[in-house]
Specification:
single chain, mainly alpha
Length: 138
């Protein structure tokens, strides 16, 4: 075999070291594109967390960009199971969707806050800014 770049060979070696047993390959890793596996290998150091992200990508059909965003936002630390009766009262596609809606944590990274804020403080800040913009428009 020929034509592999040194970088790709390093990735293959890292991949083989991260997943030495073949059972995980067939169950999870082989079902995802190579790029997804590389993003997880580059950004996540411990195996259980790697598996969590790979499972999430596989189960939810996440793209590489979304997977990277999930990792950078440390979604595995923020996501938990919700207590609900959706599994018993809704058909499977709807119950899964309802659980996902409730389980997705709020991510306010786009606000670029420099210190912790309570939701009430953010609402108050937004109200003050709206009043300021109204006053400036008058």
């Amino acid at each position: 075999m020929e034509g592999f770049s040194p970088r790709n060979l390093r990735y293959m070696r890292t991949f083989a070291e991260a997943w030495p047993e073949t059972t995980i390959l067939q169950q999870l890793i082989a079902k995802l594109p190579w790029g997804h596996n590389l993003r997880v290998l580059d950004r996540v150091k411990d195996r259980p967390t790697r598996e969590w992200y790979l499972r999430a990508a596989l189960e939810n059909g996440r793209s590489q960009n979304i997977l990277v965003h999930m990792i950078s936002g440390q979604l595995h630390e923020r996501e938990g199971e919700t207590l609900s009766n959706f599994q018993r009262t809704l058909p499977p596609p709807r119950s899964d969707m309802a659980n996902q809606l409730l389980r997705d944590p709020y991510n306010f990274d786009f606000l670029t806050l420099t210190k912790p804020f309570a939701e009430r403080e953010l609402s108050e800040l937004e109200r003050v800014q709206r009043q300021g913009s109204r006053a400036a428009g008058s």
